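task queued by scheduler; priority normal; single chain, no ligands, no partner chains; default sampling; output format set to structure tokens
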Amino acid sequence: MEKRPLLVFAILALIPIQIFAHGGHGTGFTAGITHPIFGIDHLVAIIGIGVMGFTVLKEKKWLPSLVFILSMVIGGFLGIKSEAFKVTEWMIVGSVLISGLILALDFKMSSILYISLAAIFGFFHGHAHGTEMPQDSNIPLYILGFVIGATLLSMIGMNISKYSKSPLQIKLIGAFIFGMGAMMILG
């Protein structure tokens, strides 16, 4: 039981990064759900938010993921109606690096600060989803898809944290997430 969370991340590390390229995953609902799941930057960040919710907040563990997803929807709507911000991709990579560091270093912060970070990260992840929406997509179905995808990833993160048996496992997961962010910058 103790090795389950690390096993999930070990399997993810072995999957070729090309599988996680954005786009080309259908339209509407299919495109929406596959964007966070097959976009390694979104996948790792959203799972990290879920892990942090259970690790950092002892009560209302679901609140950071909920705030992240609601902010994602706002960012998604704005992204559909605008061009990509120049900082969007950097903010997404930053969300991976910061969530990894928070977990790896067992960084303590106030609930308000943590939820604020989740809101900011969610906005930029959603904005990227919106600007990358396939042209012929049904907007409500596309947004429903990425909300469901992000919710599933958040639940995976929460369960990883729930079944982790030691603070060291959480720190190793954080180090892995940070390493993925570093690879995004270098790669």
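post-processing summary
- The helical segments are 4-14, 28-38, 40-56, 63-80, 88-104, 111-131, 139-163, 167-186.
- Residues 12 and 40 are 9 Å apart (CA to CA).
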